[in-house]
Each structure stands twice: as C-alpha cells, then as structure tokens.
Amino acid sequence: MNRRIRKGFSLFLFYIYNRIISQFVPIKDKAVFLSEATAHLDGNLKKMSEFIADKGIHIEFYMKSDRRKRMSLKELCNIMYAMTTSKYIFLDDFYGLVSAMKVRKNQNLVQLWHGAGAFKKFGFSRLNTGDNVKKVHRGYKKYTHVSVTSESVQWCYAEAFGIDADNIKAYGVPRLDYFFNVETIDKEKNKFFNQFPEMIGKKIVLVVPTYRGKKIEDAAYAFDKLNAEKICSCLGDDYKVIVRWHPALQNNIKLGKVKYNLPDGVTDLSDYDSINRLLLVTDVLITDYSSVIFDYFFVKKPIIYFPYDLDAYDASRGLYYPFEDYVYGDIAYDTEGIIDSIRKSSLHENRRNQFYNMFLNGCDGKSTEKIFNWVFENERL
Length: 381
Prior knowledge:
The chain is α/β, with parallel strands linked by helices and 381 residues long.
C-alpha cells in the first residue's frame, strides 16, 4: 500500500471514527500532545507539558520524527481515540489527521507553532506566492487557540491558518521562557559542555539554515554555497563549527534522498535533543530565513544572515515583511563574506531594538503561564 493510499485510508477512517465515538464517549479532562515532526519532546511542547504536569492534569504523548513513517493500526486507533476524547490537544506544527477531525464543543485545539515570529510564508499565505501552491491543509482552520510573539504578527497567523484574529493572542511562545531564567541558562550550558568537553574554550559557530523546496518532502539545500569545510579551515582551531539542518532536510538526508557528506572539522548536531541549549552556547549564528532568528535574539550574540538566493526565495516562497525588517546582524552572500563577518562578530544594537519591538514584544518569560491561563482558565463556551 503506497503512502497516498495509506494517508487517504487513515483520514477516511478517522473521519468516521471521530464522529461515531463523539456520540457515545464524553470528553475527558486530559491533554494530548501530538507531533509528526519530532520523535522526542522539545521546544514548545516540552515546556507546555512540563507546566501542565505540575498542575496534575493527565497527559498523553504521540510523537514521530517523520509523517512519512508508517504507524500500526493499533497506534492509529490510540491516536484517534485520544484526539476524539481529549479536552486539550496541543500541536506545534502541521498534523495531518486534524483535517478529518470535528472539534467538539468544549474541546481545545491549541497550536503552539514551532517557529516564533513570522518570517517565511506558510499555510494559506502561500496560495498567492510564486510556489503556485494549490492545496492547503484544512486542519489549520480548526485551531481554537494560537499564541504568537507580538501583535505585529497576529495578522500573519490569521491569514496562514485561515482563522479569526480573536483566536490569536500575543502571549509569546513557551520555549522562549527559557531565555529569561538565569538558573536554567547556566544549567543548560553546563549540560552541553559536559556532553561535549572538546567545545570548552572554543568559539562556537552554529549553522542553522532553513530548507529549500516547495514541500517538506522535497527539502534540500545547496551545501556547496555554504562551504562549511572552507569556513572551518579558514577559522582555525579556536573555533568549532556546528551544523543543525532543518528536520525535513535531515529526514531526507537519512532517507538518502539528499546526498550530503559531513566535511572534516564540522560537527553535525541535527539530531541533538535541544535547539535552545545549542543556541545558549553559540557565539555566532549563521542562518537565512529560519525562525531561529527570533529565539537567538535573546542570546544577545552576533548573527550572520546568508540569503544566497534572496530574490528567488522571496519570489517563490515569499516573506511576510521585507527581508531588511528581519535583519539585526551582518548579511553575507558568499563564503568569504561569512568568514569575514565571523571574525568581526558585530552586534547591531539599533537594529536589535527595532527587531524586538516588531516581532518579540509579547515575550516576557511568562508565556507558558499566560497560555495555560488562556486555555485552561478561560475555556470556550
């Protein structure tokens, strides 16, 4: 049975199952956390689940690293039952089965989108881009709660998900709370260096680009444009270069759909369990159109943008705001420019203030608590 047939069967089965079970089984006071993008708990889901667990609420988790991976009929049935009967459902990305789901009265479908801010277009926002997207996930329109990082980006999510602005609050995102807790920061840094003692005393350069491709199944990247091997050789022994590929790209590398050979001197931590921990120990970040720019802002270290295909990317995928609005660091268009900017390691304080006011002023270290109160204390009628 090929993937398309399996997907259609699962959606049809859930459509019927969801509506029948809803007639006979009441909603239970429990929370379920779902992901088709990561097999381990991290980021927003991790932070939110920890907070909820402290309140004594029953929690279930159903996680897998790639939506293309098969699940058994038993696993599918467990997920369908949890989605149909749980009062609180938490997501951090697209989740296929939601498109076949009927959200019940007093049920809360909460989207804690994995990307902070609003950078590259997604969801229904892509219908009028150069990518010529024809079909968008219908489940987006079913979200009852979406929390974003500032009022300036609320319209972006309303458009992307096709939902009313009243369902969107600028309460921030849970994982950014980590950056406001000094004790947590110190603990996370120590944990990293205990795991990688060879990094102690080195200047860490972290490379986190987004993928290229119309669909995540087609995720790829022009590794030769970056030339990480040259960056390593030019910087010398005082530096350590780490790459962390987008999960969709990493999945395609593992499947052999994308050919990639790790250059000498480069450490690949794409499967490392915490992006926040990596950011905290980073001295210079290299990225492009990735939402990691919003998380990294709170580290208060230099950032380098490497948009080698800016015009083509903007014309195809599209950005919510002009690229310049997202920049609070150096811009490099080739490997030599990256190396030069790493050596300079400049901070752009004037741009940082503008960036925060536009994209992050809803983040104050209390996002998890605010979201919890919104979802659990002010439930829909």
